[in-house]
Amino acid sequence: MTETAVITGATAGLGAEFARALAERGYNVVLTARDEERLQAKARELSSRYHVEASVIPADLSTKDGVDKVAARVGQPDVAVLVNNAGYGLKNDFHANPAQTEIDHLAVLVQAPLLLSHAAVNSMLERGGGRIINVASVAGFIPRGTYSAAKAWVINFSRWANLHYAGRGVSVTAVCPGFVHTEFHQRMQMDKTLYPKWMWLDADRVVREGLADAFAGKGVSVPSKRYKLLAAVGSRGPQGLIARIGGRGRQTPPRIRHLPAEPAEPAEPNRPNPKLPGRSPEPPFREMPVAAAVPAGTVIGWRA
Q1: Which of 140, 281, 282, 288 could staple 151 via S-S, CB 3.0–4.6 A?
Q2: What are 30's strand-pairing partners?
């Protein structure tokens, strides 16, 4: 039986790239999102290009019916990989949003991944293994609004679940990117030119590093050395200062006067149909002391 990967938010950005990368590895793919027309187009593309089965589930994950439809498919025994990628950000501050807007936001970012992970874990334990990849953000390492709070939950849940279920063959990984060239920021009407080029990552790099860490059994993956550094600062730095820096990201671009150079990292060769599970999980992401992480005179700000 060919193994299947289910990817939420699969029509564009990181979701589309996860779907492409997993189809390239030989998985059949199930794509979910709200836009059925775009889903069908993406499914036809992947099926034609990689000669795998690609099916779609149009679903709104802010609703119970939408989550139930996807959860029913996730619970099938052929599903070896679940990628919880669906999500979006809110442009306004917490107090300026209607309460229902915040509730719907929380449903997509927290409730849906929780319920889909619950369905996946139960099925994967019965089949003897599997992998869950939860797309979080470096924003989850800093105190910065409800998006940050939701992603912090995803990170902590993934870290715990990976430690708890790894011994039974199920790995759970939170992939925590920073700024990525996707539709995410366009939908927030964000001017990407305000932010320096070094802060932006390509979706293929995020997915390549995220999959490598997931198949290595890691609980947390922070793609690129630059964002590993920023995540360490965000989680261990003075929280009042970090919150002020993070909060300024909504109005003004971040400034960094110095950042250690990061060498280019070669892409890993394609490895079709990796077996599940792999080796024992490696220790989760370790934060480094701030004094060791940041050179004197550095001024840091970011938004993700």
Answers
A1: 140
A2: 6, 55
